[in-house]
């Protein structure tokens, strides 16, 4: 009987040591890839309509691999919220906190910050419209219970302090100003492909929208006057 060669013995040992059903390859990279695929799938199809099979197909893996890393649909959604969505909310909050209580800085900081965030996370407007604004959206409760305290309420409080210090129009409601800012950023970006088609203009991109929004907020509808 021939003695197995060293290489063959090593391969046999590795095969024996691997747990049954465990995917090969870099587990952390695979898990990150699955989270990204799930997030994109939620943004495109909605959380309720998503299935482990559909997410697996989008990621180019088997449903068994998704189950191996996350167990089930609910656990996968929880992981996407904790590891993808909430960190983005934290980025927005940190950017706003750096602006202090100056109303002008907060407005421009919010608009520019949202555009920069969405440039890095293009799924955000689509997910927001599908799962937060739509009736029965899966993430509505998340907005009220966790996101609201981090961004909308903090921003409204900053606007309120600016108003009390005389730095913001007293006719404005600080809370509705936050609503207006969200409406001027997330909505148009979510609908950008539609508006480019309606006006047959490819120049209506994120840069043009950001510039327009800042001009609208700073000067409103006043006509330019010659010096």
From TrEMBL:
Pfam families: TetR_C_29, TetR_N
Segments crossing the lipid bilayer: 176-195
Residue spans binding DNA: 51-70
HTH tetR-type domain sequence ranges: 28-88
Keyword Lyase: no
ATP-binding is among the record's keywords: no
Keywords: DNA-binding, Membrane, Transcription, Transcription regulation, Transmembrane, Transmembrane helix
Compositionally biased region (Basic residues): 1-21
Region (Disordered) residue spans: 1-30
Xref: PANTHER family: HTH-TYPE TRANSCRIPTIONAL REGULATOR BETI, HTH-TYPE TRANSCRIPTIONAL REGULATOR RUTR
Full protein name: TetR family transcriptional regulator
Organism: Litchfieldella qijiaojingensis
């Amino acid at each position: 009987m021939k003695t197995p060669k060293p290489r063959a013995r090593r391969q046999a040992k590795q095969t024996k040591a691997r747990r049954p059903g465990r995917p090969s390859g870099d587990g952390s990279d695979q898990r990150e890839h699955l989270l990204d695929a799930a997030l994109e799938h939620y943004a495109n199809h909605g959380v309720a309509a998503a299935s482990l099979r559909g997410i697996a197909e989008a990621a180019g893996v088997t449903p068994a691999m998704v189950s191996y890393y996350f167990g089930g649909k609910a656990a996968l959604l929880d992981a996407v919220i904790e590891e993808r969505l909430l960190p983005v909310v934290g980025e927005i909050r940190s950017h706003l906190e750096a602006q202090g209580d100056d109303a002008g800085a907060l407005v421009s900081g919010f608009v520019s910050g949202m555009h920069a965030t969405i440039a890095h996370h293009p799924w955000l407007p689509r997910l927001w419209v599908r799962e937060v604004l739509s009736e029965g959206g899966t993430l509505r409760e998340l907005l009220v219970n966790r996101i609201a305290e981090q961004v909308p309420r903090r921003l409204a409080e900053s606007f309120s302090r600016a108003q009390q210090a005389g730095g913001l129009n007293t006719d404005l409601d600080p809370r509705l100003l936050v609503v207006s800012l969200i409406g001027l950023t997330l909505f148009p970006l979510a609908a950008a492909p539609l508006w480019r088609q309606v006006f047959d203009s490819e120049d209506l991109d994120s840069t043009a929208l950001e510039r327009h929004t800042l001009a609208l907020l700073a000067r409103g509808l006043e006509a330019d006057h010659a010096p």
